[in-house]
Amino acid sequence: QTVTRRFVLVTSGKDPKMSAPAKLQDMPPRGGYQSIPFARVPAKKYFKGWQLIAAYAGFTTVGLSLYYLNCRENHRNEVEMRGARNVIYALLLAERDREYLKQLRRNRDEEAALMKDVKGWEVGTWYGEPVFKTLPKDKLVDPTFEEFYVHSASKDRANRKNVKMWA
User: Which residue ranges traverse the bilayer (predicted)?
Assistant: First the structure.
């Protein structure tokens, strides 16, 4: 035999010069295997039917009573919050109007400071001529957006202008 053929036989376990180990047949243990349990084994019952129905009725009764009490409390809180919102709404509107009038006053003061050196200039008029001739003097004319924020910082004006986009 050649060396390569011997190498192939040795590595494949078929070398004729080596003795093969005796193969043992797998046999059952002495006395045989245990029998396979295949009989039906019913599940253990922890509660009887009437106990389950009673538990359901008890839990439902307790749950509904707690739900009712919680709903009453929530309703009471909602009424209180609605009342507080209605009360504070008038205050917030008054504060908004107050701040609006303060800004109009700041604008008039700034106009007076800017135009103090211009001859014949009166605040709120165009060289002494009223801008709105047909309106009474005590009538407040709301300024335009740009006119309202004319003396404010440009950042504040830009923030206020973008509020409409986010609302």
Answer: 50-69
